[in-house]
């Protein structure tokens, strides 16, 4: 490990106890949403400006991957949202479908913070020649929520007072697989209709990345899912035609590009394949995984 790597490890070492303490404080509070860290730190007078558009990347981050990096960077560079822009990496401590394993929540928060640093560095390189904010003005918030559903999370963010009034437009960054869950009435008891989404989709947008693989169908099938909404075929479930305008389908990985997933990361670690790991996660995240011995256990 080089001197710079040692310095980086030392710099990150304090994150685990700090974030563990912040997470415990959140868990014992009545809060449903809290920002635990901002990259870079918000210190006056150099604090990043209040955002007009807040991009929300909501994931289990188990761990953060280069797929997350691609989704976030693409939105920040190419989405038409008003400036200044800001990114919120959001971890649900109570997920509708997933238990908190194999990496603990505090380790995930450390990796999210390191990922935010790596993302800013990547963004700075890709933003060269793009009409975007200076890197010094671009911030990433690392947040947690106890809420499992999109519309509840969006409302909690809006009502938290942590962003300016009027609150920024939220653009939620998802994959097609998550879109299917978002528009599945089974998640909205007791009526089992999509009506609870009216406030969320009336004010905010969803940027959806195409998914590859036979289980999701081709691009045409994925586009048809939103076309059915636009044509009124979901009205019987409470889906409104105009909601289709609140969604945008965007490209994910390029043709021939390797599939990146958290599962592949965990497999690479268990197999000791550091070359594969470097292609799946950012350098800082990979260093933390190796240093802390994460994902080495089977099962």
Describe this structure in words.
This protein is of the alpha/beta class and 299 residues long. 40% of the residues lie in helices and 14% in strands. The protein has helices at residues 3-13, 15-27, 66-78, 105-126, 150-159, 176-182, 198-203, 219-230, 262-270, 274-280, 283-292; strands at residues 33-39, 53-58, 85-92, 140-145, 169-175, 205-209, 247-250. Strands 1-4-3-2-5-6-7 form a seven-stranded mixed β-sheet, sandwiched between helices. The longest helix is centred in the middle third of the chain and has 22 residues, at 105-126. It is globular, with a radius of gyration of 19 Å. The chain starts with a helix and ends in a 7-residue tail after the last helix.
Topology summary:
Blueprint: H1 3-13, H2 15-27, E1 33-39, E2 53-58, H3 66-78, E3 85-92, H4 105-126, E4 140-145, H5 150-159, E5 169-175, H6 176-182, H7 198-203, E6 205-209, H8 219-230, E7 247-250, H9 262-270, H10 274-280, H11 283-292
Parallel strand pairs: 2-3, 2-5, 3-4, 5-6, 6-7
Antiparallel strand pairs: 1-4
Helix pairs in contact: 1-11, 2-4, 3-4, 4-11, 9-10
Q: Can you count the helices?
A: 11
Order of strands across the main sheet: 1-4-3-2-5-6-7
Which class do the helix and strand fractions yield? Answer: alpha/beta
Uncertain regions spanning at least 5 consecutive residues? none
Number of strands: 7
Order of helices and strands: HHEEHEHEHEHHEHEHHH
Quaternary class: single chain
Describe the main β-sheet briefly.
7 strands, mixed
Beta-strand percent range: 5-15%
Proportion in helices: 40-55%
* Chain-averaged pLDDT: 88
Radius of gyration: 19 Å
| Morphology | globular
* End-to-end distance: 30 Å
